[in-house]
Amino acid sequence: MSKRTIDYYTNLDLLKPSRSDTGYRFFELSDVEQLHKISHLKGQGFSLEEIKEKLAFHDSSEQVLEKALLVKNNLQELLVLLKRADRENSSIKESITHDTLPVIQALLQLLV
Predict the structure, then answer these.
(1) Which of 17, 26, 27, 105 is deepest in the core (most CB within 10 A)?
(2) If 0-12 CB within 10 Å is exposed, 13-18 middle and 19+ buried, where does residue 62 land?
(3) In which band, very low, low, confident or very high, does the pLDDT at 43 lie, cut at 50, 70 and 90?
(4) Is 18 helix (H, G, I), strand (E, B) or coil?
(5) What is the pTM of this model?
(6) Segments making up each domain of the chain, as ranges
(7) Which CATH number fits the domain 3-111, given the four candidates 1.10.3720.10, 3.20.20.70, 3.40.630.30, 1.10.1660.10?
(8) Tens digit of each residue's pLDDT (9 = 90 or more) over 48-105
């Protein structure tokens, strides 16, 4: 692929390479993959505008999936914490007997 083509794709925002401190473009593996996607879609007859729309949709879909995975992981962590709290609650309830209840009430009054 020519430098001119890469410049054109960059100007159309089809490609967004990083820039060094001196202003040089820095292409990462993801940029090369993006170029392959563009080339493949062009080969299938899509216009550059259509390709831009497809790539933008793909990027937003990936972001939604990443966010959903993060939410799922957070929910799993919360479930673990809830189960632990439930076990502790059950343990506390089991340890409270008619004999210990007056002692607990007396301690609570001291705290207040």
Answers:
(1) 17
(2) exposed
(3) very high
(4) strand
(5) 0.51
(6) 3-111
(7) 1.10.1660.10
(8) 999 998 888 877 778 888 889 999 999 999 999 999 999 999 988 888 877 888 888 8
